Amino acid sequence: MPEVTIVGGGLAGSEAAWQLARAGIRVRLVEMRPLRPTPAHKTDRLAELVCSNSFRSDDCFGNAVGLLHEEMRRLDSLIMGVADRHKLPAGSALAVDREGFSAAVTEALSSHPRVTIERRVVERLPPRGDGPVIVATGPLTHEALALDIRRVGGEKELAFFDAIAPIVYKDSIDFSKAWMQSRWDEAGPGGGGADYINCPLDRDRYEAFVDALLAAEKIEFREWEKDTPYFEGCLPIEVMAERGRETLRFGPMKPVGLVDPRTGKRPWAVVQLRRDNALGTLWNMVGFQTKLKHGEQVRVFRMIPGLEQAEFARLGGLHRNTFLNGPRLLDPTLRFRPMPWIRFAGQITGCEGYVESAALGLLAARFWIAELAGEEPAPPPPETAHGALLAHVTGGARAETFQPMNVNFGLFPPLPPEVPKNARKRAMAERALRALDSWLATRARPRTSACQSRKIG
Length: 457
Hints:
The protein is of the alpha+beta class. It is 30% helix and 17% strand. The protein folds into two domains: 3-155 and 324-441, FAD/NAD(P)-binding domain (3-Layer(bba) Sandwich); 163-320, Elongation Factor Tu (Ef-tu), domain 3. The strands form four sheets. A six-stranded mixed β-sheet has the order 6-2-1-7-17-16, covered by helices on one side. α1 runs parallel beside α10 (354-372), α2 packs parallel to α10 (354-372) and α2 (64-74) packs parallel to α12 (424-441). It is globular and about 65 Å long. Mean pLDDT is 91; it is low at 452-457.
């Protein structure tokens, strides 16, 4: 029986292990935690969520990440299956109980008869004699392994900083000032139309908050880190504030779709908190990634109405992420060009986001499944969310300016110009699901899921 070694037990590595084991292939899943901790992880569990607990929109016909969710469900994704079983109220988003989620993924893999989990540090890329390999070490790849990847790939290291948001105890929030409401009262999976805690700011309080944010003490970069760019999709809130006084009010603090029940009016700005665990005791400050010093976070964030007495289960932090220049180093099936017995998957390939990482782990595994069966690996059609994301990290983006990217409809092949603008997202989604089902027809039977039961164009 063949065996595939997977280095890294995050979302991508866990998904890859599941896909391979379900196909009858033995898996050696190597994870360095707890022997070697990272600045962001808190446990030794597989698929630990280190930042937000949200998988973002679950709308398969109106949002590209929701479409990716649906495609993964049809591909028998472990990550999506567990997420669906551990979902929390979060409006139109799919949020999960982070503890229950990672515990369930760990249990599914540790109890699988074809999966062996090893706890050790990998400092060099495995040689050809080790057999097929998937490297899914994520954005916090061990320094020695990162150096070896850079040495073999011949590319200058590319890196960015990723900040995490604070988590607040619900019972410390003042609900005489805060209220429950989803934007536009929109209901989502596992919830209703009031899934977020909203803390309103009038104009004066907003201006004072921005002043305090700009003046607060921040974590200093080390000399070798100063030129490292942020990922635009996860900017620290104080960096956003530096770009202009109105940036936050049109970004994570936008008040649109929300009405303060005390005044009957839309506030000048709003801080939203999203449920972070199944008990509903912990709430994540949405979009409040930060590199402020911990004492400054407490001082500044307690200026927000409703959070004056806030107690924090976790304060925000900062960690350094590393990724490959995929368009130069990866072939169309995620194979590492200098060492073709190795495939890369997850955030280290230059994708961004939980589900995007897991999706590339899923694809890397399916490519090995085909190859070990003596077949030619066939990438999914570019019209699918998987195909569009894969194309971006393996050649769709310019190598000279390559940066991490979430899945979005801008990565998909264009529709005919006669398709009306207000119908384009749904048309792209319908086209994607038809293409995915056609691709799957010769490989596996699609699973039934919520969106699949709807009429597809």
